[in-house]
């Protein structure tokens, strides 16, 4: 099923881990060079900017090939745009397989052809059948296949988006169940996605899909929060259920969504500290901030300056308590310096600030041997002899 040699993929994973170990100063530069030179590798780009550049180049290449082929076969197609879009997807598939055969992985060119192929295929299905349900089903299946075959991280995200769109379409368009249950079904789907991540992550055979599983995990956490967020539920209730929220009134089960808007991020934060999960902690902090924005968007409980002051006090208390709790931890979420972080930038910034505060004044030179006036072995005529 894999489009690449599994040994080459494993070597790329080992070199990537070796670079992380070198960054954390566990191995020397010579050891890293020995590992990188002894192992045969796939052609990839670790620098994200270079990868983006090759991605744009790949998009231009795909469009050029697509335009040239269409110009050649235009008389045969007779302006049948549906067949043309399928032909675009076929060009993307051929280009993707060609780059995989040439050992391009995480390079930028392969990303361009993989995503272009999927986009053309989804567009072809949408144009042919004019049914969003089939498009979402294609996103789930094709995104999962591309993720597994090409070890492509963004394809896992596409598959997750297609799964959510499929569920949304089944409830709102196909009327599988009452729209009232949509937030709770979305939350259950998020729990299912997270448990699938846990199951696959614990299996050491899936180490090649570490990044794809991480994206799936973050997607599940974000989906779980926004499924029960008061703002999302209220806006969807007004647009899908035609509920008009008048002054002094509220949506059904509003008290439940008020509480869950804050309880879900707090659970993320508490559980992440307990399990030492940094990514969940980041998601919890960001979603908690959005929870405060959600309530303030609808209810102005106090002036902005008072809210900022109280928010600062609360954040200071939380940070102080977290420092006291984590200061003796050595692994996971801890207050200790992170070895994977680049501390050189911090040290350089500190030195720059210290030098900027130092008032350096030029020191005037002292003349220990004054000349003139006859004071040094007849150096000049004075009034004394």
From TrEMBL:
Keyword Transmembrane set for record: yes
Domain of life: Bacteria
Keyword match Transmembrane: yes
Keywords per UniProt: Membrane, Transmembrane, Transmembrane helix
Coiled coil: none
Chain segments annotated as transmembrane: 48-73, 85-101, 121-147, 154-171, 177-197, 209-233, 253-274, 281-300, 306-326
Entry protein name: Membrane protein DUF2157
Organism: Flavobacterium cauense R2A-7
